[in-house]
Amino acid sequence: MTATAYRPDIDGLRALAILSVVGYHVNPQLLSGGFLGVDIFFVISGYLISVIIFRELARGEFSFSHFYARRIRRLFPALITVFMASLIFGGYALFAEEYQHLGRHALAAISFLFNFLLMREAGYFDVVSDAKPLLHLWSLSVEEQFYLVWPVLLVLAARWRLKVRALLGIAIVVSFLFALHLSQIRLDALYFHPLARFWELLFGAGLAYAHHCSGMDVLPPRIDQVWIRHLLSLGGLIAVCAAMLSFDGKTPHPGMSALLPLLGTVALIASGPVAMGNRLLAFQPLVWVGLISYPLYLWHWPLLSYLRIMESGAPSQFMLWSVAGAAVLLAWGTYWFIERPIRHAPKGRATVTALASSMALLFVVAGVVWQTGGLPGRDSVRHAADASALMKREPATDDPCRRGFAQNEAPVYCRLNASQDRTVVVVGDSHAHALYPGIAEQAAMWGYGAMLLANSGCPPLSGTTWGRNEAEKKACAASIERILGAIEGNRRIAAVVLATRGPQYIDGAGFGPVEAHYNYPPLAAWDASGNDDDPAAVFERGLGNTVQRLERKKVPLVYLLQVPELGVPAHNCINRPLTVTGRPPGCMVAQSAYEDRMRVYRQRVARVAAQMPALSVIDPLPVFCDGTRCAGMREGRLLYADDNHVSLVGAAKLAPLVFEKLQDMGLTRRARTP
Fold it and tell me: What is the pTM of this model?
């Protein structure tokens, strides 16, 4: 059998990959490792495309123009269709800022640079993945980045008579080691970084080279026994399925553990179409799904994402599976009526030029959506203009504050208004950042300047740290010390306001549908004060340590308890432009749910305050709750910027409570200096 002969078992393997991805995206609990389907696609792609490159290089027929023309004819027809549908539908279903994000994402995806944008966006404040209708296109970006580099390396290797085996080995090792290194220093970038993914495509390329050298698409002749093929095939199928069942979102990926499904995929392809496991994959219904796997991959995520957006993150399972079924129908139609006719059209420049021009036009459209702020003048979103303005986040840093720190050592949130000779400093995490505008405004009314020193997801609790690996923990602990040191050495500080989130640092769990996939660890100890692994005890001890250090300044010190979490996007407080059920989404949470969620956290803060009179605690309940429910909107004004951070209005309503407490502790109004 030649290396280019059609293999239905590979289409069956594609079906296994796409069905696992779709199942995972519908219900992650159903198949916790379903995301591995993308990795399987990488191996298959590396194999099939490299087989063609090796064959054409050997014949002296390889041409970059022909290669990329084939890529355009293969990828662009379905991709253009999905881009058009997503941008058009987004104009009806999304608020202005959501549509603006979509335009920006479309620009990056059309440029095949989307993975780099996602690396920059990744982090605590990133929009939940379900609200990104084009998120899945990161994998196409990685794949095309690989095919910008790989053919060039092979052409140079042929020209300079380099050994392809050595090139493959070095490339795989370098990419794999880079992935392991990145997992230790920057987990947010690991999943999307091309260099951390290239080794997966190279696994397929390596197998393609072995088959090219042997002239076969199966094992080399020296391993030609049928029983070996059967064992290799079944072992590969078991490895892939075991990984899909055992991996989950907490598995660092891609990394050492990814070897299991990837080597399983290589074993399946290597064992050939006659092997037992491959015969199972060649089952006709699986082959049919494999044939539409590419358009199904393109369609399924935008449909699921838009459904979740319109239903405020909590559509029923029936709705989700119905949409998945609709994706199959759309994929079938795209394959038969768009992909196949264009793929089998005469191989001239006209088709490629038309496809490239269409993609360029979509690039312009996406740019307009982005640059206009999401077309806020649309009739469907005009009612939300005022509320959307309240959800804008203040700048994270400014130059006056950064100048107080060594280069690259300022905290994530660093703001300073030094208009007065005495300053009220707000310290904490992202909740301190959200509170800061209200405190700064109130401080000015009282005759004080304002300062913000805060980390993201790393509360300044002395002797504690947070992180998913040692590098993140070390960075968090160092930042805590820099913040507390800056306060201790600043003689202009007149009062200190602590504001942090609480329960997530104790139980490592998010709240509500919007944080259903929250995947961060609880707080951990970073000092020798005890080996207690209980995060609640670590939180209490860390808060006590911080109070002990700051009370030496002899200034008022208060802690603002965490505000209620909505568990849904703040947009739920406004009527969405388009919904499926037509029901108002609502943005309230039962006060009893808030109290249950906060119970352990509040108890720990209360214990610290009881033991340390220098600390006074402020309860935000009067602003948000009425004894029964806690609302995201009061008097027609939005109190939240997202599911758990206050808006500018929310900050303005909390600030007077803070200053009343500071006044009780001795802070006095002062005449403002010009």
Answer: 0.90
